[in-house]
Design goal:
Structural class of chain B: alpha/beta
Strand content of chain B: 15-25%
Strand content of chain A: 5-15%
CATH architecture of chain A: 3-Layer(aba) Sandwich
CATH architecture of the largest domain in chain B: 3-Layer(aba) Sandwich
Helix content of chain A: 25-40%
Distance between the termini of chain A: 40 Å
CATH superfamily of chain A: Thiamin diphosphate (ThDP)-binding fold, Pyr/PP domains
Strand order of the largest sheet of chain B: 10-12-11-14-15-16
Oligomer: heterodimer
Number of strands of chain B: 16
CATH topology of the largest domain in chain B: Rossmann fold
Number of strands of chain A: 8
Number of helices of chain A: 11
Order of helices and strands of chain A: HEHEHEHHEHEHEHHEEHH
Number of domains of chain B: 2
CATH class of the largest domain in chain B: Alpha Beta
Order of helices and strands of chain B: HEHEHEHEHEHEHEEHEHHEEHEEHEHEHE
Radius of gyration of chain A: 19 Å
Helix content of chain B: 25-40%
Structural class of chain A: alpha/beta
CATH topology of chain A: Rossmann fold
Number of domains of chain A: 1
Largest interface: A-B, 45 and 40 residues
Largest sheet of chain B: 6 strands, mixed
Distance between the termini of chain B: 41 Å
Amino acid sequence: MHSGAVGCRGCGWSMIARHISSILGEDTVYIVPACCFSIIVGQYPMNAMKGNVVHTLFAAAASTATGIRAALDRQGKEHATVVVLAGDGSTFDIGLASVSGAAARNENILYICNNNGAYMNTGIQSSTATPYGASTTTDPIPDYKKTWPKDLMGIMTSHHIPYVATASPAYMEDFRNKIKKAKDMQGFRMIMVDGPCPAGHKTDPSKSISVSRLAVDTNLFPLYEVENQRYTINVKPNQKIPVEKCLELQGRFGQLFKNGNSAEIQKIQDHADEGWIELLKKEGIETEEYRILE
Amino acid sequence: MPDQMTPVLSDSKEKIQQKESDIKMHAEREQSKYPNHEQQILKGNFAAAEGSKLSRAGFIPAYPITPQTTIIEAIAAKIHRGEMDATFINMDSEHAVFAAAMGGAMAGERVFTATSGQGLFYAHEVLHAIAHFRLPIVMCNVGRPSIPWNIWSDQSDSIAQRDTGWVQYYGESGQEVLDTIIQSYLLAEELDVPVMVVLDAFYQSHTSENVWVPSQDLVDKFLPPRPEKGNGIDLAHPKSLGGMVSPEFYEDFNYSYWKDINKVEDLTNEIGQKFKSTFDREYGAIEAINIHPGTKKILVTLATITTTARGVIKHHPDVGILKIRLFKPFPKKSILNHFEAKQIDPLKCKLLTVDRNFLGDNEGALMQEMRRALYGHKYQIHGVYAGLGGKDMPPDTIEKIIVRELKDTDEIIWIDNE
């Protein structure tokens, strides 16, 4: 990347973009719908990336990418990587149909979703990726979101695409390996990255990595891959850390620690535990209870 | 073929032989009318598909909607049979179709697609983007209205896209549609503006006509491959396309678009003449039928209504037709020049627009456009709403419009509701 990109301090996009770029190389076309990155990567006439960047409509990223892929292939440029860099707003909500269509056609596209759990670019409004218990401007304090986020990984794996994975900036080697692996595959590949956002999560910018690490280690954001329907969990915590340890560092969950809302924290803990058990089963580990694995 | 050439029971053997020889000569003469063409019986939609094939469109994102669907089906069949070299993708909605078209065009492909009504409305957001990204995409719209739900002939959908920036041509016949698609790519790629070619639902899209189909060689002589202008996706020289533009620079983009859109009318006429020298069929921004100094009424028409009107005015020598082929940008210059050349006097000649559209306004779109074009000239412009939602407009309806007494101030007339 060129210097001068305008991310917030501690922003997830800012951290991952240069890793993505250095691994994918210059024969890459990035398609960016409305999201924080469309601003971070530069307003006219600037471009922070060393590849072509196509800014496209909010609901249209995967469709635009489909057209670009078709054109490049007709021109004998199959080696060029077509990548969508999108946020959760576009991916989970307004652009979901477009993503689903492209995945169903198994378009030869790498789709990277930086999931920071809200419409952050427009000032922290709820999306269907916003976690249970989080406050935003549209689920405002003293209230908080009382519905669970969509299981995007589940949605994408039902499309029978070759590669679906989660990743985190706190586990950078794993992240880089996944980008490298995905780069060399064909077909629709989806990587959802846990995106720290100090402004929207109300965290200390210097704590972005440690909060993200806690998210993985408390099973709030498990790291796993699904390669041709086979599940592999990449990080198995060797101790059980309560979700509270991660939530208490984020101001957006502040309401859960007030006014007798502790039952909500237990709900989140149960949900994380059940998710982990389900994930273990998918990897092939038979269990009905939460387990630490040696 | 003239009726008297057909053999009948009472003809003698010699007469039949003579007639058969006449028929053969007639057919040969017909065939040589347009050398390097083949006469085919084609429905409007199939003529459109053929136009896209001859134009060597290379990327076809598609989604079905009545009544355009047979266009994309015909294209899919051509590609499957190896007659057309293009990538065809079944997209998941019209919004997605046009977004894919946008991507493909940004990466240098010649793109074609088709839609109708609700599909066009759904794609509206992307139509604006395509035009202001200055992408030379050509599409067909087979027009149908919005609500109430209706799949038949109405121009409300395409006219409602007036403000997107797309150039719009309306075709009267399958021949015109095929020929216009070819001309549209030439115009689009010279000015970097997208073009919409509009067909009338069912009356045009699903009815058969004799269409002279030019050979691929002839079309290639007229329409070269899409020129490279260096402003698209380029792996060797990466750039950013579509980043946010601040108020400081914004106007520059509109100014440059404005300059180019103002060239469309003249270029339409120029390309129409160039088409004539290659294909021997002439086109322009407008077509004037029976407009002369003695004309007392002029019907202003879009698309197939024109054909019916041509027949009716044969009984009305003082009624003419102004057929609008280039609707957007509206061909003000061509109209005013023609009226002046034919000495059309505002005090003696009344204009009647036939609006097969309803946009929630008092006046129909043609009436609005004619008023705008003829501003400052003292023409009476009456607007007739007719044929909405595909209501048939037989010669009787045109007759009614022609003979209806007109007041001295502009009127709005609902011809089937009086």
